[in-house]
């Protein structure tokens, strides 16, 4: 029971009191083992060793994205991302709060930037497909009557899709404003025409 070494003196005394003769002997052995640097948790020891290697790599390269050419360290880095993914999925994981904090302090990317971009692109395409399906369902109302389209959009879309559509429209309106910021008559005409088209979309 090496855990007892991390307890308070009072807790140690209470632990010994349950079986004084045996536990005093056990405690002495535990102290002796700790004095010679005995490793209780081999996983933690390996983790700390690899973390030190990652810290050295980060100091040399300025990031923690270890390539596959560093086989051992690269595998360990992928394992840390996998353990973090388990937490996000609500599964049991060896990624503790202290380990996650230590990695974060190095600037560790628990989700690679390229992975995030790929996921965002997939989500974007998914929302586009959902919008196409929505338009197909309400095609008669959305293609002939602007007022009806607005009503259907408000009452018919689920919140996620509605937020997506509204965000795309805000981005588009901002783009139109940027295009017409020079007060160019052609740009203004184009913006007006396109805005009208957008309202009917």
Automatic annotation (TrEMBL):
Gene3D superfamilies recorded: 6.10.140.530
Region ranges (Disordered): 175-201
Composition bias, Polar residues: 176-187
Residues covered by the Helicase-associated domain: 46-108
Stretches with biased composition (Low complexity): 188-201
Pfam families, alphabetized: HA
InterPro entries listed in its UniProt record: Helicase_assoc
Name by which UniProt lists this protein: Helicase-associated domain-containing protein
Annotated source species: Cyclophora tenuis
């Amino acid at each position: 029971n090496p855990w007892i070494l991390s307890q308070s003196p009072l807790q140690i005394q209470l632990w010994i009191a349950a079986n004084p003769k045996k536990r005093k002997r056990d405690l002495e052995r535990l102290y002796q083992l700790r004095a010679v640097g005995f490793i209780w948790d081999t996983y933690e020891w390996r983790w700390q060793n690899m973390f030190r290697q990652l810290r050295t790599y980060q100091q040399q390269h300025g990031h923690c994205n270890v390539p596959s050419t560093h086989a051992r360290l690269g595998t360990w880095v992928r394992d840390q991302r996998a353990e973090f993914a388990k937490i996000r999925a609500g599964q049991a994981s060896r990624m503790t709060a202290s380990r996650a904090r230590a990695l974060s302090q190095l600037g560790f990317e628990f989700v690679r930037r390229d992975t995030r971009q790929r996921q965002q692109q997939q989500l974007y395409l998914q929302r586009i497909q959902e919008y196409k399906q929505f338009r197909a369902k309400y095609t008669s109302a959305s293609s002939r009557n602007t007022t009806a389209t607005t009503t259907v959009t408000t009452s018919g879309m689920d919140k996620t899709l509605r937020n997506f559509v509204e965000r795309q429209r805000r981005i588009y309106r901002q783009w139109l404003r940027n295009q017409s910021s020079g007060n160019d008559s052609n740009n203004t005409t184009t913006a007006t025409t396109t805005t009208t088209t957008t309202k009917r979309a």
